[in-house]
Amino acid sequence: MFLSDYTPYVLIVEDEEDNRELLSVILSEEGYQVQTAQDGLAAISMVEQIKPDLILMDVNMPRMGGFEACRELKKRHPDIDISIVFLTGQNSMESIVHGFELGARDYLTKPFNIEDATQCVKMAQEMIFRTKIMGSIFASASAPANALSATSAASTVWIIPS
Asked: Are 88 and 60 in contact (CB under 8 A)?
């Protein structure tokens, strides 16, 4: 498997239609599979259906904001490694730190630069790819070890002195 062969599924969660459409068009043109949602509640139900690799999520949205949606996603799906990049107009260090504490992979400040957004997604793609490769390496490395230990246990010969 090569990085060029792997295209993550990106969910864009943004209440501002212009930003949502702009990111969708840009990332689709870059070859990403893209879905969009208008708020955190819609994102949560979509995650259960499409299982995205990466979520670009606005922090401040109606009904459910990005931080709350992130907490809920981590609670509902602790076994799924979903990378989240927060989009925000808030440039406060407190907000950024809070996002990272919730498990964000990165932050994009609005208004965002198109090159910064695509570079951020590409970097996240590389990290997702590496995580998947490492997971498959560990899975394949542990399979023979389990088979060996089962074989060893089955063929143990006990010598009992008389």
From this structure: yes
